[in-house]
Design brief:
The complex is a heterodimer of chains A (166) and B (122). Chain A is built from 5 helices and 1 strand. Chain A is mainly alpha-helical. Chain A has 2 domains: 43 residues, no CATH class; 120 residues, no CATH class. Chain A is elongated, with a radius of gyration of 24 Å. In chain A, 25% of the residues are buried. Chain B is an alpha+beta fold. Chain B is elongated and about 50 Å long. The two termini of chain B are 32 Å apart. Classes of the chains: A mainly alpha (166), B alpha+beta (122). The interface between A and B is large, with 36 and 37 residues.
Chain lengths: 166, 122
């Protein structure tokens, strides 16, 4: 029985139906697996990426401690521009476009936004209503590890999805 | 959702199988990223992309950014169906279910005369 090697290239019409041994089919599937693993590794952001997002968010929140709302407006603008620049750079680095958001990653993202919003709300209540000093600084400091944690959680979900989807 | 197993000669070549594996997971991928994933030369990748493109399995787009031409590719619906079918065929072979290369499950691993009743993979 002729066996079809996965290392061969098969081109041209009319090639007769050929048989493949299960081991060779398994090798082809392993190659697919390796490609998906490579893709998952490539898409996962470097460690400092989420830290940079966290520092941007934390700085914008902590800056409210100064109570200068014009400056706060600028810091929010800088935060938006910084996030956009980071996302653009990551997109260029990865070289692929994909649907980052499915139901799970969307839920994690929503959880991240709600957590930061809650943190800001508590800081406002403590800092503005009750006059507690350092509330925004503390909230900003907390925002950094929270952002890193949510970012890594999203990466983990993306990796699982990429490796499981075939 | 199950996909009908269909062995696809175009998808089957190792490099093209890997290209399809990458493109099936993303919306689009840059030429440079795919080349890096496969570890092949530009000319080799171009050849395989041309085969997939001519088969209608992938779309190729070129855009200019800062005076540099950027080539990106994405899988078409036909390409996705062919890849999924091919993958199902590979799985069928691995699981020893028996698969016929014309796309029909059957006695693809049928035994030569005189060996009936023995395992197909023996």
């Amino acid at each position: 029985m002729a066996s079809l090697s996965v290392m061969e290239s098969h081109e041209g019409p009319g090639r007769p139906a050929t048989e493949m041994a299960p081991g060779e089919a398994a090798s082809a599937i392993s190659a697919i697996d390796a490609s998906r693993s490579w893709l998952a590794d490539r898409i996962i952001a470097p460690g400092w990426y989420h830290l940079a997002f966290g520092v941007l968010a934390g700085s914008a929140i902590a800056e409210a401690e100064i109570r200068n709302w014009a400056l706060f407006g600028w810091s929010v603008t800088a935060y938006t521009a910084g996030c956009s620049a980071l996302a653009w750079w990551n997109q260029r680095r990865v070289g692929v476009a994909m649907e980052y958001f499915d139901c799970r990653t969307r839920a994690v993202f929503a959880g991240h936004v709600l957590t930061l919003s809650g943190l800001i709300a508590i800081a406002c209540w403590l800092g503005l209503d009750r006059g507690t000093h350092g509330a925004f600084l503390a909230a900003g400091a907390l925002a950094v590890p929270l952002t890193v944690a949510f970012g890594r959680w999203t990466d983990k979900l993306l990796r699982t999805r990429l490796q499981a989807s075939w | 959702m199950s996909t009908a197993a269909r062995f696809d000669e175009i998808v089957h070549a190792p490099n093209r199988l890997q290209i399809c594996a990458i493109l099936s997971a993303v919306s689009s991928a840059d030429f440079a990223a795919v080349r890096e994933g496969l570890g092949v030369a530009d000319s080799v990748l171009s050849k395989h992309i041309r085969v997939l493109h001519e088969a209608g399995y992938i779309d190729v787009r070129k855009s200019t950014c800062a005076s540099r031409v950027r080539t990106s590719m994405s899988m078409t619906a036909a390409g996705r169906a062919a890849y999924d079918g091919h993958l199902a065929a590979l799985r069928a072979i691995v699981s020893n279910e028996g698969f016929h290369a014309d796309g029909c499950r059957g006695d693809w691993l049928a035994q030569p005369p005189g060996l009936e009743g023995t395992p197909a993979s023996a």
